[in-house]
Amino acid sequence: MEQLIATIEKGQPFFNAIARNKYLKAIRDGFISVIPIIIFSSIFCLVASVPNIWGFYWPDDINNALWKCYNYSMGILAIACAATTAKHFADAQNRDLPKNNQINFISCMCAAIIGFLLLSSDTIATDAASGFNTTYLGSKGLLTAFIAAFVTGIIYKFFIKRNITVKMPEQVPPNISQTFKDIIPFSVCITVFWVFDIVFRAAFGFCFAQGVIQVFQPLFTAADGYIGLAVIYGAMSLFWFVGVHGPSIVEPAIAAALVANMTDNLAAFQAGQHASAVLTQGAQYFVVCMGGTGATLVLVFMFCFLAKSQEMRAVGKAAIVPVCFAVNEPLLFAAPIVLNPVFFVPFVFAPIANIWILKIFIDFLGMNGFMYTLPWTVPGPIGTIMGLGFQPLAFVMLALILVVDFVLYYPFFRAYDAQKCAEEAEISQEELAAKNAEKAAKLNDAFQGKADAKSVAAGAAAEAVKADAPAAVATEATTASDLNGKRVLVLCQGGGTSGLLANALAKAAKERGINLETAAEAYGNHVDMLPDFDLVVLAPQAASYLADLQKDCERVGNKCVACRGKQYIELSQNGDKSLAFVSEQLSK
């Protein structure tokens, strides 16, 4: 097992390179930016649909109002995603461009939206007016949105890098000059999309977005099978096990399917049909990642209530609340689970078992798949029941998943608990032997009329502490002066774990009267925030992005640092150490 893990660990640099790929990152960050739309629209979807389970139906005017808000948010999801992906892709492109010659991401976003509309929508003409066909403006158009964003970013970089722009005299204000600077790349983008759309429709008789769906549909179908689901979620856990944030690598490839399948499930349910898609965002949030990647919800309860090891109990108590809300990094790094051979098998295979159980319930028992999206921080059991629309079978499936996860983790948990108990017992024996030796030395000294060596040493230590007291006060004062008026930004993958360290810093600073501002955010949403902070701290699961973050920080003249796993958890739990760490980084 250790040899297998060592082999996998050797591939970590390659996995990190994949995670840093600017195309995958732009998809991931762009998709994360539109998640509020998905969650917001699902609230109206839940209010409109869930009461139907108990035979209650809203009056037509209220029902139409609820669905209007859903359609005007979720229904244009791809338009929003074209813009957000273009923005994040432009940020990535700007890292390779001089500071004084950057891509205007707002212009890039506008071009991507127009290009996406050209590729995905037909004109609907009526007697009174004309409008857009909305078939592919929602989740079905996500793949086309990504393509439009990438093409736009590539064209903009080509012209901006070579300074092929309309140049204005120096006397013209910068905002006016920027407008003219964008004319050529913007015009070329729209022309490329327009010409391509004409040629494609003439050749195939339908829009590009429909063609993309037809090409990728077999892959989506295969991904929704038992083997496809095992590969997707086994890989996600495997990457995390070696310390690379798995969702950053896997999610961009399946992001469009996750949302499109949930939309299809809802449409099928409303039409009285079976909502049969398994690969959905809800399934990933609340079934596969119940308690975080690796399905660690049951494991943290084992640590907290069943462990005999004092260390494991302490880790369980510290991690149980975050893990209940799907923030399981405190458990992954403090236990540790990452790169711990004992937990390799359940960490990789529990998520696979969970998604297979869901698929069995959908395929053979007729349960509908996930139709409603909730925030990923909703506790897994609650998210499962609500996301599945309170179906009776959902309760049965949830109980079965928890039992299966317990069975998978328990023998490995027991083995690790025994290992830790043995380590603690060995330490205790050493401490006992040291105490016995100390007692023997005292008796010997008493009989021989000699001074107690330990007392002398203790007195010397006390004097040293006394002498160093002013230095300690001075160090504390120096730390306070270093931190007063400073601003620290903590970044992780989803904005969950970063809050732990940011809150610890803020609490410790407040207790000591230090004027320190802290904030937590997901990596990818940080670019526009950087000028407002003096130091950026990168969580260990996002450490592969350090090189890119350094480039971003150099542009605005601030500092950044990445933390190691156990170090990050320790800083999150110890205010003094977190303040000292930040002070040290700022003083470099």
UniProtKB/TrEMBL annotation:
The chain crosses the membrane at residues 30-50, 70-90, 102-121, 141-159, 183-213, 225-242, 283-306, 343-362, 369-388, 394-413. It comes from the Bacteria. Residues 484-528 form the Rhodanese domain. GO terms for molecular function: kinase activity; protein-N(PI)-phosphohistidine-sugar phosphotransferase activity. Residues 485-588 form the PTS EIIB type-3 domain. The modification Phosphocysteine is found at C492. GO terms for biological process: carbohydrate derivative transport; phosphoenolpyruvate-dependent sugar phosphotransferase system. It catalyses: lactose(out) + N(pros)-phospho-L-histidyl-[protein] = lactose 6-phosphate(in) + L-histidyl-[protein]. Residues 8-412 form the PTS EIIC type-3 domain. The keyword Cell wall biogenesis/degradation does not apply. Pfam families: PTS_EIIC, PTS_IIB. Coiled coil: none annotated. NCBIfam families: lacE (TIGR00410), pts-lac (TIGR00853). This is PTS system lactose-specific EIICB component. It comes from Collinsella aerofaciens. The lineage of its organism: Bacteria, Bacillati, Actinomycetota, Coriobacteriia, Coriobacteriales.
